[in-house]
Design the sequence.
């Protein structure tokens, strides 16, 4: 069993679905479970963070990883940013919960021991280098530094918001094929499916456009088609 995100993407679309929201009239765990049954064979991965954790707890999350682990890639998005020894422990716990990879912030730096722990666990690490919201000025100022650090650290991938195609291009140029680029901001935040792939991203992270859709499978099929249309 290959637990590498790249290999999951090769088999399916380049969509990672973010489970933050659920329709207000649905039970979150039932809805997300149903959602993964509907689209699990079409997406590369699923991203879970604090919104889902607060709604369904550790038990709910482990129910999902147990039911769908191995079929979809489970990406933990807690944007970890603590001292390295604590982040390493968080990675151990997330790995034990069934996650295949974790997102960390890179600005604390000094994360070489974190990457080492992750490697031992065969757990992938993705670093945030540019966000998708307006006004993320420190990311604008520090983008090159964060990219250089991501490269030096040897992360498996970086996050670059889809709202800045120029930043995705820059990241691809600097990283070459050494790291994946995951890009959120497609759908609810205004960018079109395929837009980030076109400029060099490997995966598009999509939340509400799928999780709040009355027909999630149709929504994913349409997005996957748009992605294939611009495949590099
Ligand atoms: O498609 P949406 O807007 O409903 O959801 C987007 C998801 O991507 C949501 O889970 C955010 O936490 C995440 N995200 C961003 O929207 N912008 C960023 O800059 C970074 C992320 C992210 O995934 O960081 C790891």
Sequence:
């Amino acid at each position: 069993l290959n637990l590498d995100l790249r290999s999951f993407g090769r088999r399916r679309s380049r969509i990672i679905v973010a489970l933050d929201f659920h329709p207000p009239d649905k039970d979150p765990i039932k809805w997300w479970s149903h959602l993964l049954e509907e689209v699990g064979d079409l997406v590369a991965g699923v991203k879970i963070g604090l919104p889902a954790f607060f709604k369904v707890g550790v038990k709910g999350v482990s129910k999902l990883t147990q039911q769908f682990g191995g079929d979809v890639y489970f990406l933990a998005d807690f944007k970890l940013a603590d001292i390295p020894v604590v982040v390493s422990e968080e990675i151990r716990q997330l790995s034990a919960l069934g996650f295949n990879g974790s997102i960390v912030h890179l600005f604390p730096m000094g994360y070489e021991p974190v990457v080492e722990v992750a490697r031992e666990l065969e757990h992938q690490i993705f670093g945030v280098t540019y966000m998708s919201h307006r006004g993320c000025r420190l990311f604008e100022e520090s983008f090159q530094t964060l990219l250089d650090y991501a490269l030096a650290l040897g992360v498996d991938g970086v996050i670059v918001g889809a709202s800045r195609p120029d930043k995705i291009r820059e990241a691809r140029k600097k990283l070459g094929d050494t790291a994946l680029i995951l890009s959120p901001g497609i759908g609810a935040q205004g960018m079109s499916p395929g837009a980030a792939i076109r400029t060099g991203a490997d995966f598009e992270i999509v939340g509400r456009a799928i999780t709040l859709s009355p027909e999630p499978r149709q929504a994913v099929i349409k997005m996957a088609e748009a992605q294939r249309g611009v495949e590099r």
Q: What stands out?
A: DSSP finds ten helices and eight strands in the chain.
